[in-house]
Design a protein that fits this description.
Homodimer. Heterotetramer of two MnmE and two MnmG subunits. This protein is of the alpha+beta class. The protein has 19 helices and 22 strands. The structure holds flavin-adenine dinucleotide (FAD).
Amino acid sequence: MKHFDVIVIGGGHAGAEAAHASARLGASTALITMSRDGIGVMSCNPAIGGLGKGHLVREIDAMDGVMGRVADKAGIQFRLLNRRKGPAVQGPRAQADRAIYRREMLSETEQRANLEIIEGEVTDFIVKKGSVAGAILSDGMEISAAAVVLTTGTFLRGVIHIGDRARSGGRMGDRASVDLANRIDSFDLPLGRLKTGTPPRLDGRTIDWEKLESQPGDAEPVLFSFLSEATSASQISCGITHTNEKTHDIIRNNLTRSAMYGGHIDGVGPRYCPSIEDKVVRFADKTSHQVFLEPEGADDHTIYPNGISTSLPEEVQLEYVRSMVGLERVEIIQPGYAIEYDYVDPRALDLTLSVRSVPGLFLAGQINGTTGYEEAAAQGLVAGLNAGLLAQGKESITFSRSESYIGVMIDDLTTRGVTEPYRMFTSRAEFRLSLRADNADQRLTPIAIALGVAGTKRIERFQAKMSKIDDAMAILTKDAYASKAIEAAGIKVSQDGSKRTGFELLAFPDVTFEHLININPELEIIEPEIRRQVERDALYAHYIVRQKRDIDLLRKDEAHIIPTEFDYNSIDGLSNELKSKLSISRPGNLSQAARIDGMTPSALTLLLSHLKRDS
Ligand code: FAD
C-alpha cells in the first residue's frame, strides 16, 4: 500500500490549494482527483476575485499559495472594483482565460515538490481506531495517510436540473460522487442540501457585437500576486446587453417549468447570486437587468452571459436569450442548469477545518456550504496546512478575524453555520480598514515565513519591500513640520497650529507623497510602489489605532480556549437553548462563543468562570 503524509481528495480550487499548502510544508502529499484535466476547472464564471473575494486571493498569495499567480497568468481583463471608494473596500478582479487557468494550475501542480497527482475516484476511507487513515479508490487501490482533506465541491450526490429533467452529475460533463457520499453517511455528520446554477454558454460568433456597449478592462491592471509584474495573456473587452420586458414575460410564462421554481429542487440557493428566474420574481418592478457578455478565453468563442443563470428548459433559454439586443440570432453551446448537492454543516468543524468527531479528516470548499472559487481555495489553504502539520506532529495553525478575511470566513462558518451558500463580502469583516487587499502580505507573509511555507522568491521580495517601507517611514516620521512650512509647500490641511510629521500629513485624503517631496526632497528616492503603499497605510493609521482596542479584546477572548469535549450541560444557570446551541457549534474559544446567536454577556461570564475553574 502506498503511503503519503497527506491525501487531498478532489482537484478543484480547494483541493489544489490544499495540496500545494501541504506540499509546501514538506509533507508528502497525494492529490487524488477524478481527472487530471479537471485540476483548475472553473465550473461556472470564468473570473477570479471581486469584492471580498479579491481580498481572499491576495491573502492566499501572501501565504505563497497558487491561485493569485495562476489568475495573473490567465487574466484577460483586469478591473479594480470600487476604484472610486477607499482602498479598504476595493477588490481586484480578473476575467480568466479558462484554458490558460487550467493549464497553468496543472503545470504548477505537476512541478510542485512533494506532490503527486493520482487520477481516480475515491469511494471509501481507510478508518483505523476511529480515525481516517487513508482512501480507497473505485479500482480497489488503497492509499494510507496521516490526514485526509476532502474537497469534493458540488459532487457529493450531485443532481443536475434543466427544466423538469434531472440526472445525477457532479457538474456538466462529470459524474457525481455517490459511493463516497454513502460512506460519509456512516460518519453521522450533519448534512444538508444546497443548490447553485449557471447560465447557458453562448456562441460568440452568433452575437452582434456592434450593437452592444463594450466594457474594457483597466488601462493599468491591478494584479493579484505580490510576485507578479505583468500579465502575459492578451486583453479583451466584454459586451453589455440587457434583459427587457419581453425577456421577463418569457421567463414569467415558463416559471413552472423551471427546476428551481417548479418544485424539483429542495436545496437552498445563493441569495447573492440569484438566477434570472429569481430576479424576475423578486424584483418584479424592474423591467431590465444588465447582462455582461464575458469571453471565456482570448482564442475561445464561448461567451459566459453573466447575470442570467437558469434552470429553465433548453428551448425556453434559447427563446429568452434571443429576446435581448445583440443576441437575436445567438446559438447556445451548452444550456444553463442548476445543481443540487450535499454539504456538511461547517459547525461540525473546528478552526483548522478538521471534523471534530472524525480525527484525521479535514473538509474544505463547497462541501462546507460555501460558494465560489476563492472561498474554496482559502479553505483549502487552511485545511492543507493543518493536515500537513498534523502529519508532521506539529502544532496547528488558525487564522483570527482580526488578521484576515480567511479568519473571518472560517470563524463565520464554524460558529454560525450556513443557511444558504456562503460567499465573502467586505461587510463581513469588522476590521476591514486594516484587512485590506493591498496589505495582505504585511499581515500574512510573516506567518507563512514562520511556518516554513514561503518560497525563497517570496521571502526575498517581501523582506526587500518591508525594508523599503521602513526606510520611507523613517524619513516620514523623523521631523514634524509647522503649519507655515506645510502651507509654503502648497499642502492644504486644517490649520490647528499643531506640528505634523510627513506620515500624519499623508492621512489627509488630498495629500500625496508627491506633495511631501516639496517639504522634504529626501523623499524623492522612495519608489512609486512604496509611496502608494505608505499613502494607503497612512490613510487608515488613525482608525487602526482606534480599532486596536477592539482587536486586543478579541484576541484576549480568543486566548480562552474551550476544550472540544467541554460539557455545557454542567453549567447551572445557562439556558437550555444556549446549552443546545453551544453543544452543536462547539466554539473553539470564548470569542467564537460570544458570536453564537442569542449569547448574552451574563452567559459568557458564566462560561468564562467555568473555563477558569476547569483550567
Ligand atoms: P470543485 O471545484 O467542484 O472541485 C471538486 C473536485 O473534486 C473535482 O475536481 C472533482 O473531480 C473532484 N472529486 C469529486 N468527488 C471525487 C471523488 N470521489 N474522488 C476523487 N475526486 C473527486 N460559484 C460562485 O461563486 N458563483 C456562482 O454563481 C457559481 N455557480 C456555480 C454553478 C454550477 C453549476 C457549479 C457546478 C458551481 C458553481 N459555483 C459558483 C461554484 C464554484 O464552482 C465552486 O464554489 C468551486 O468550484 C468550489 O470549489 P471546490 O474545490 O470546493 O470544488
